Amino acid sequence: MNCREFEDIVNDIVRAKMIDAASRAAGTAHAENCGRCASRLADERALSAGLRSLAVSDDGKAAPATVEAALLEAFRAQVSNPPARRLPARSGSWPRWALAAAAAILIALGLIVYRAIHIEPQKDDKALIKKTTTRQPSVDREQRVVNDAVEPEPRRGPRAPRPRRGSRPRLIKPFIIDGGTTYAKESEYATDFFPLSYSDDQKPTESGEVIRVQVIRVQMPRPALIAFGLPVNVERADVPVKADLLVGEDGLARAIRFVR
Amino acid sequence: MHSTLCDDELVTLLRAGDEIAFVTLYRRRQGGIYRFALRMSGSEAIAEDVTQEVFMTLMRGDGRYDPSRGSFSAYLFGVARNQVRRRLEKDRFLSPIYDGDEDRESPTPESLIALNDPLGDLTRKETIASVRQAVLALPAHYREVVVLCDLQEMSYADASAALGCAVGTVRSRLHRARALLVEKLRAYQSAEEAAEGAAEAGRTSKCFV
């Protein structure tokens, strides 16, 4: 037997697997007369011993009882209701707490802005908007009115390529309100504003009334996109997403748009 | 009664909605699946998820088990392997960290521990930690053959059924994987010896000061 043939069977020799007796004897005899192969055999034996120790140390490990309980529950549900019901993933999907946290952040921001407006009003950062007579005016439309009031000819950039999924809102180039830092820049893309309603008693405004709004740039956890039906890139889950909040005089955030 | 049935018989009963058959199969096979996922990922959380998903797959009848293509065990490991790969791919930016505690590991057979030899015990634990680290550092396709064939003691034929490749491929991957492990363990050993040498040199220089 030469070194190459020995190399072919060295794993089988040390792993005590099925190997014919003649090959084993030839391999062992070769190792006794070849220093390099003897060293190789010793390494393999040491590795096998290490792997055995690792296997033994893990021997009692098993899934916790909660897994069995969850599976049993799912099994019973499936038997009583044939279409299989998937268990919720234990990890790797967006939990509800992330959505709740996003909502809490929005409310907290609203309160902060409310305090800021009432303690030290800054007219430069506010815009006047005329309330429309539409029964449920979209915030985006209100924003365009703001734009008209501040800048006679609103600029709108070209539309971004059509998104793949129908539910995905169209990305549009934002219009600029006053060049302030609180608004989307020309180089940025923003979604349409998504109206935020906290209660059903927000009634449509009467024609001719004027209210003040403010646009505030914030950063939000990326999972907040899910609440608005927007897709989330899982690989960038830890990277916050920029958003513009449209905050009313009462401190409540009325609408939000996401910016990139 | 169910405990005396073979896997295939239990699968037949399970498909008919027999809960005891499902529980019997789960208890018989979950340990191996959990340990496979744990050794592949180094994460107990992933191991739990994978174990759950493997038996959910079995329950739903997705990718139906076909006895002519391999044993039931090989089928389960095949599903587990795909689940682990999916999870590792998803979490590929996270470093695999073994989140178990060596000290609270399962009871170790007394034959491997000399109770009055703390140094030997320490060495053994260090060896296990080094081997575990080396296995986790292997590329996935090498890691899975080491885990299946060496740690789970699966035959080449069953491993090839679980991995969906030829027996020869399993053999050659295992050969290469073990060579890589030897290299890695040698490197760890050299690093440890260098660190010990530096520490010794530090102590000596302090004596002179």
- Unreliable spans of chain A are 121-184, 199-207
Largest sheet of chain A: 5 strands, antiparallel
C-alpha-based Rg of chain B, rounded: 21 Å
Number of strands of chain A: 7
Mean pLDDT of chain B: 80
Under CATH, the homologous superfamily of the largest domain in chain B reads: RNA polymerase sigma factor, region 2, helix turn helix motif
Q: Please count the helical segments of chain B.
A: 8
Supply the number of structural domains of chain A.
Answer: 2
Strand order of the largest sheet of chain A: 1-5-6-7-4
Q: What would you say about this model in short?
A:
Chain A has six helices and seven strands, in the order H-H-H-H-H-E-H-E-E-E-E-E-E. Chain A is α+β, with helices and mostly antiparallel strands and 260 residues long. In chain A, helix 1 (3-14) crosses helix 2, helix 1 runs parallel beside helix 3 and helix 2 (21-33) crosses helix 3.
Q: Can you walk through the features of this model?
A:
The complex is a heterodimer of chains A (260) and B (209). By secondary structure, chain A is of the alpha+beta class. Chain A folds into two domains: 1-84; 96-259, no CATH class. Chain A has helices at residues 3-14, 21-33, 35-57, 65-80, 96-119, 139-150; strands at residues 126-130, 171-172, 190-191, 194-195, 210-220, 241-248, 253-259. The radius of gyration of chain B is 21 Å and the shape is elongated. In chain B, helix 1 packs across helix 2 and helix 7 crosses helix 8. Chain B starts with 6 loop residues before the first helix and ends with a helix. Chain B has eight helices and no strands. By secondary structure, chain B is an all-alpha fold. At the A-B interface, helix 3 and helix 4 of A face helix 2, helix 3, helix 5, helix 6 and helix 8 of B.
